[in-house]
Design brief:
Number of strands: 13
Radius of gyration: 19 Å
Distance between the termini: 52 Å
CATH class of the largest domain: Mainly Beta
CATH superfamily of the largest domain: q2cbj1_9rhob like domain
Order of helices and strands: HEHEEHHEEEEEEEEEEHH
CATH architecture of the largest domain: Sandwich
Largest sheet: 13 strands, antiparallel
Number of helices: 6
Length: about 270
């Protein structure tokens, strides 16, 4: 088991706060040795195998990407580690780091948990979904922890952080063991690793993802609802997700009564 100390977490977060909020293109930080590497290697010993019947993302925007939530794991160390990442000491660290108070952990791990991408896979540049319907809360922070020992730069898989206008990539972060990336999740926090992995067939890109939320005092009625929104890089062959863009257009511009009529017509065929 791992048990974090709340006071130490608060102090560590406060020490890095100024660096975090000043970062471009959006508030973020890259922390090496975020967790002891021997602890992370212990987690890797319990990492699940992607069985042939395990579903994965396989479309132009994201390929060969697997996910596991804690309830799917027969792995006590992995499950306890993920639970600790949602416990108070880590929450206090994130609050002190980001300056965002009253954060809410996600016990459902919606889209979070273990992530793995195989050779040839990729995750296009995107901004994440912003509303957690189960919690009725607004997504605010991503925490990514990488678990790739001896990761060679030739394998690719760098996390890219893009300018808010998608004009250029501003930072690249290699997914090396023990490295964590924390960033604000806004509608223009564009990130991903868009080029296919070129690692050996027996290697994969592994990470843990935790997401944190707040419950705005004014509620969510005036917040535009967004699912994960992929972006095409300039002068690239990246595929646009026209279905999602149409859904967002409907949400923003079509009166609710007409939206309900369209949904009803689709259901009836």
């Amino acid at each position: 088991m791992i048990a974090l100390d709340k006071a130490q977490c608060i102090e560590a977060g406060a020490r890095l706060h100024d660096q975090y909020v000043a970062a471009e293109p959006f508030p973020h930080i890259v922390i090496d040795d975020f967790m002891d590497k021997d602890i992370l290697r212990g987690l890797l010993a319990e990492w699940p195998l992607a069985s042939t019947d395990k579903k994965y993302y396989n479309r132009p925007q994201e390929r060969l990407k697997y996910e596991w939530q804690p309830h799917e794991l027969n792995a006590p160390f992995l499950r306890s580690f993920l639970a600790e990442m949602n416990a108070e000491p880590m929450m206090r660290f994130i609050e002190a780091l980001t300056g965002i108070q009253n954060l809410i952990a996600d016990p459902y791990y919606a889209g979070a948990g273990l992530h793995e991408i195989k050779r040839g896979g990729h995750l296009g540049i995107h901004a994440d979904f912003n509303i957690h319907r189960g919690l009725n809360a607004l997504r605010r922070i991503n925490l990514l922890i990488y678990l790739n020992d001896d990761w060679d730069s030739s394998y690719g898989g760098d996390l890219e952080l893009w300018a808010k206008d998608m004009s250029e990539v501003r930072h690249k972060v290699a997914p090396r063991l023990g490295r964590a990336v924390i960033f604000n999740t806004e509608l223009d926090s564009f990130h991903g690793h868009p080029d296919p992995l070129t690692c050996p067939p027996e290697r994969t890109r592994r990470s843990m993802a935790l997401y944190y939320y707040t419950a705005p005092e004014s509620g969510l009625q005036d917040v535009p609802v967004r699912t994960t929104t992929f972006q095409a890089r300039p002068k690239s062959t990246d595929s646009r997700d026209w279905r999602v863009q149409f859904r967002h257009f409907m949400q923003d511009w079509v009166p609710p009564v007409l939206q309900r009529m369209v949904r009803a017509r689709r259901k009836t065929g």
